[in-house]
Amino acid sequence: MNLVKDPATFVNVFLVGLTQGMVYALVALGYTLVYGILQLINFAHGDVFALSGLVAFTVLTNLFGVDEASSNAISAVAIVLALAITMPLFALINASIEFIAYRPLRNAPRLAPLITAVGMSFIVQNIGLAMYDVNFRSASGLVPHTSVFTIGDVSYPWSKLAVILITIPVLLLLTWFVTQTRQGKAMRAVAQDQDAAAIMGVNVNRTISVTFALAGALAAVAGMLFLLQFNMRYDTGFELGLIAFTAAVLGGIGNLPGAVLGALIIGFIQAFNEGLGWHSPGSDWTRTIVFGILIAILVFRPQGLLGERTPEGA
Amino acid sequence: MSTEPEPEPERRSRVDDVTRRLRRQSLTGWPLATAIALLAVLYPTYIMSLQELETVGKYFPSLGDSVIVVVFTMMAVGLNVVVGYAGLLDLGYVAFYAAGAYTAAWFASQQFEQVTFHFGAVGIQPDVTGIHLSIWLILIIAGVFTTLVGILIGFPTLRLRGDYLAIVTLGFGEIIPQFVRNADNLHGFDLTHGTFGISPIDAPGFGETLSDSLGLPASYQASFDRDRLFYWTALFLLGVTVFACVRLRDSRLGRAWIAIREDETAAAAMGVPLMRTKTWAYAIGAFFGGVAGAFYASVKSGAFPADFFFNVSIFLLCMVILGGIGSVWGVILGGVILGWLNVAGLATIGTDLGIEDVPKYQFGIYGVIIVAVMLLRPTGLIPERRHQRELEEAVSDLPLYDAEHDASLGRGGEDRIRRG
Predict the structure, then answer these.
(1) ipTM for this model
(2) For A194, nearest residue in chain B (alpha carbons)
(3) Which of B89, B374, B404 is the best residue to mutate to test the A interface, defined by the most A CB atoms within 10 Å of its own CB?
(4) CA distances from A252 to A247, B43, B188, B239 (A)
(5) Is residue A255 part of a domain?
(6) Is residue A117 part of a domain?
(7) pTM of the model
(8) What is the number of structural domains in chain A?
């Protein structure tokens, strides 16, 4: 049996997986940041991502009026400007969700904020439904699908390069923020021990708000990238959120490089499952495979690939 | 026997005191419960006159809708065993519903045309292919099968902490419907008939013999009182579920569940076997979900994969939360309110307000209910006494030093739990 029919298909599928993995990574980071600091699975995160993509669509088409006919330079500027609007907006929205729904339950039993998060997920999803109805939106026409380079039968389109061109700087910025700045240090301190951090003068509530804002901004970037690649509608965030959460768990929840690694692995698994259809179960089974991995990881290695064993990790 | 020493008089009286108080507590609610149960049982007799009332008449659900309300309430009461008693957040309860529905579909339809096996099915010609068992037998089979599914899911996952357990159950709740959708060609074998689902499913009934001797209906489908029969059967099943759940709560097992919910580490230290107790909660919750699913499939005369999606799990969870986590009567109230909103209420209210597509946003509305209840009244409409106390303590008591987040303490606790 031939696992790979020809090298070109293999490489093409590999590139699809890389692109998908990058989008998952941005959403997975949002889960992992919040989990790291509050030990809360923020179910609403996937839906915040979907809503941000839909809002980005409105900003691009209605506010800036760009469409497929616009020149590449104008599209690129519009995309960057749209990000400059949606990132702060969804940072604010995500921080507000924390303020309204999770903060009052900070000292409640552990299950209470988790249940509230499920409720928030449905609220955000239905806001998307109310604003955009059930139609799919996409802005894949804004990025050129012509090849950057072609080697044999392998071509690498600009649309996929755009994802990497946006994701890499965002990841570098995030790393710089978390490791180098004062606020990043406060975040790590609160994640390690809330009480000790508070004693040392860290403003815990503000740090948690900043974390949620950061996660919201990352979700907004992911929403934009998804919009440029695929179709999305109000409930896209549910499944993608679960996949991204799986990625975060796979890499070791609370661990930032782990989330990116897990997201890339999940992206490749999904791409190879769907792209090499003659040999693999195919897209009908993607969910089953992804959640199968999630369950297996949680049962056999709950700390994930890069995570350390913590009391919360079991 | 006679050598056994008599308990000291003082001690015995104290024990008696406690027993008497408990008995009194459990008896005070009964007159009200009986009255409500009677009203529910007699609903078919006065529904017509209620619906003829002006302005409010249209809010009363039809019998067909009431069956759905009762079935979903039954599932919610089953879910309450897992979430309310044992404190295990299960976001994939729909998997048990699906397992029950498909059990009914396998054993009471023409799905497996390779075999012809009849046992107690009513209104089916003897030469029809497929397995056709009596619906009453199927309800039990579905319960047992779903219990096994519950144990299979629970066994590897119940070691996990609350929030990880939630996500794993959610995963199973997603895997099982997808499996059902895709399992129409497992190496050429059609197990579930894919996206079309399995339909029709044989109607329930008691058969000619019982009909002649006891006056029970021979076949629901052939009866003119079809809706009433389904309604009363559903109510009977709900009654059995409620009785079982109330008795379970006061049993040794029930107290163990509540101990685990309140403090896992302390419960383990007191000798409660964690894994076994949790698995029981899972299995029993699954049992009722399976029976309800099988019955609902026979009401609908079909098992369709489109019915089994994540939102159903949340819908049931919302019933439990609105009514009061852990409180059986509260969950029934929550189930009736939300079930009614689901089948008829939202549409009727929407028409009244002049808004057309209120049902479209039903899950948004459930989301608002969940968040509002958790923030404003976390004990639900009818609080369970112990749970209320637990929450009040947790909210009012702000520890200077939180043991839960202490790595060294937590680690020790986890290890101990793992071995138990």
Answers:
(1) 0.88
(2) B405
(3) B374
(4) 8, 54, 39, 46
(5) no
(6) yes
(7) 0.85
(8) 1
